[in-house]
Amino acid sequence: MAEGTWVGLDVHARKVVAGVLDAGSGELRTLRAPTAIGKVKTDRRDAERLARLLRMGELVAVRVPEPHEEQARDLVRAREDARGELMRARHRLSKLLLRHGVVYDASAWTFAHDQWLRQKRRPGATRSTRRSSSSRLSRRSSRPWTGSSACVASRR
User: What's the rounded Cα separation, in Å, for the pair 100 and 115?
Assistant: First the structure.
């Protein structure tokens, strides 16, 4: 709803009426909810209600998307999922480093930050353990991280 739109709701024992007043155009729309007492839901009442909603402009046309549109939507969903996973992995890594007192003092997730991350090593870590998954690395460890002291700040 646009700014300046007023909505009112009138509730009684046997009916509910909603009124919408658009301040810009001054148009008043009312929408009555069907009453459940004494009325049986029928196809005719449904059709009349849909006709009233259509006349008031409250219904929006929908259609089944074409196959190429659905493929594009699938790509968008996959990209959003991948982006979310990337952000979760970044947060896990940054919080792991923070727990060990390793802080990067410049803008994170840049090329320079990537190079700095690649220089980080844990004492006693072998080549195979460095390639292990981040989920295994996210477990708490008492061993400190090492790296260039210019970018490492100790936690107090």
Answer: 19
